[in-house]
Fold this protein.
Amino acid sequence: MSPIPRRSLLKAAAAAGAAAQFSWVLGATDAQAAPRTAAADDDPVTLDWLEDGGLGAAPGSTVGVPWPMGTYQEDQTFALTDAGGAAVPVQSWPIAYWPDGSLKWTAHAVSSGSGKLTLTAGDTAAPDKKVTVDKSGGTIDVSTGVITAKIGKNGSTLIKSVTRGGTEIAKNGRLVLIRQPEIEDEDQGAVKTERFDGVIGEVTVEQDGPVRAVVRIDGKHRKGGRSWLPFSIRLYFYAGADSFRMVHTITFDGTVEPGKASGDFIRGLGVRFTVPMRDAAYDRHIRIGGEGTGLLREAVQGVTGLRRDPGATVQAAQYAGQKLADPSTWDQRVTTRLQYIPKWGDYTLSQLSADGFTLRKRTTKGYGWIPAGGGGHASGFGYVGGASGGFSFGLRDFWEKFPAQLDIRDAHTDEAEVTLWLWSPEAQPMDLRFYHDGMGQDTYAKQLEGLEITYEDYEPEFGTPYGIARTSELLFWANESTPTPETLAQQVEAVRVLPQLAAPPTQLIKSKVFGPGLYSEPDRSTAAKAKIEDHLDFLFTYYKDQVAQRRWYGFWDYGDFMHSYDTVRHQWRYDVGGYAWDNSELSPDIWLWFAYLRSGRSDIFRFAEALTRHTGEVDVYHLGQWAGLGTRHGIQHYADSAKQQRIANTTYRRYYYFLTADERVGDLMAANVDSDETFLVLDPIRKIRTAPYTPDRHALSIGFGTDWSGLVSAWLTEWERKGPKWEKAKARVLSTMETIAAQPNGFVQGSELYDLDTGKFAVASAPVVSVSHLSAVFGLNELCAELIYLVDMPKFKEVYMDYCRYFNASKTEQAARYGSNFGTLLLFQGHSRLDAYAAVQLGDATLAKRAWTKFYSSDGYMESSPWKTEALNGPVTLVPGSEAAWVSSNDTALYGLAAIENLALLGDKMP
């Protein structure tokens, strides 16, 4: 990707002056912030946990906190105190800046705390046990003050050892991949597999304490001369913790071809550790999580339930996980026959669907398995060890992202082995082949006909998974002895719901982040407001319930939901082209995050978190020719041939990143900085162009709506974060704002030719009216609200106000302003939020009235809509449940955003 040289930047800025007269040179000086009316607010911020219980058994938590512009400068230090006023150690760092250089967002890491915490400017308290990182030897040694992990710098062992005190608790942490080179669709043939091991390519220490350390490991899985399936692992350590967290990402770069049985089919994908076993077999303990905090609690060699009783005290101690008294003190009828009691060395819990898990065990390899129980939703937690120490482990979203599996092997020997399978080897191989043969759609004309009937935009070889990614989260504990049931329950809860600190909605709102004034706290002070709040609650609850009822789970699917409903089949259109998976269509991501920002509700946060993890990884390409582009809604998340910026939109990741400082999501945003280069590779409207067009580096056709909103979001984020390319990104933000503002019809012009080297749009010589109902519904309004607040550029504000004013205007009004009307448009309810925003910016009472008119009585959801579900039972549906057949995800996203923004902007002007 080409950086923008300073000489070219200055030259481009000089050339821009003829088209639009603004007061600064692009990239040469800081942009001037728009005038402020409110003073900076440095009041203390009360942080609280999303769920009850505080940090619990988790290693630590990191929270993002916003500040009003001008409040604090980069060198500000912060203090944290608990409810009693005692200092809490905290590690703080900036993650975004305002244009004036002041802190916009800061991240704060803690490794203790159970109640509310107060954050203020002040001297930072240091932890009693600091995290330290030593890179000087052959390994990177990270110590929390309680445990020490030795991290490999090369080879296939990522974590050489994990020790506590002088005891090695676990070792040989490594990645395992099983490839199946052929899929037999019937019952013929023999299944062959091969194992690949994760091999380190690069190790980076990203943070080194004193409260939080982060080590990143990148590499590929290798066997012999072949390396594939890139991985990126982050290990998180917190001061004083006996545990650590792993964030595990794989990017698929295998070959799978529709219609062919051979290819790179993943049969198993896992993380494996060796656990030294030092205790006698009757003092070795197995714990495997079932439903809730339920556990299988057994010893490798059990002494309960025998024909002869060793004594109630011995039995109770073994069940509790305590070291037993010397066998010489037991009933000798048991002691003298210990050698005849089986030792159970192997356990497997398999969650092959979202509806059930099975558990089995055996004595050792080569001998038969016996069932050990089962249930619905396993927690994904396990433990193996004994009185002298043991290893707890867990995989987050275990059953939601089935097929998953936990293995314990050889617990009766000197070294047990545990494997957390992100893809269970007992499941069918991961089959990512495109789902149909093309049905003769070998020309654009035929493909457009296909679009007309199934809403799928098909094109040969475009339905490829090459380059999609998936991230998983794991937790590990190095215990000094087998934990008590109460501690185990806390560890299970941390795996299921990772504790998260959060800043309150009041701080988010007064800091004017994510679009000043676009969201406000829920308000039920009037009947009209209460009714809208009820509708918002109904929609969120309905989607949350539909995820469970429709089983929208699975390794690649969890987090997303469906686009449209089939009222005849009482089923979402999971098998109908572009009506299946939603893939961020019309910005449900923003709806959900705005719903959280205004309410602070943990259930909304968790739903939006799962959506962000999914849409940013699975719906977007990270490798290959389409890296930086996302895929339009479809039956498979990568199936549709529309590979576009609007789905890869950085806006959808910003919320989660700034609220949590999550490094993986930060990677995704940074990767989009040069996404303007993708327009050289693929023309997003190639099938409907009527004039000849060849992508040219100096003349790329880019729209001002769905295209630019995705690009400018990445640039703005890089600028705010002061990432490696922030100066280029800032120049791109300003130059594209300038040259959109300089168009004869501003945003209504629709698109223009863009120069990759100057970062500028050509300015058209003649006005054009080209408006799409989609242009503003992929985050444009929310981004422009941010940009207008950040950058004092009156002409840009003017042309955006015009767009807001005239989209929902009458055709006569449009023609009077632009010479012709906008044609046939849709999504007026969703666009009422543009009316509301412009009404406030311009002080226009007529626009304010129109905003509510369009919200209540244009399209989308009406007050007369049912606003309820109907019960579903057999034989009309697969499983009992409910439906709201009138609900669609497009309407939900648009209604949700319009309701939230209109209430915030014009709640005092409701009819």
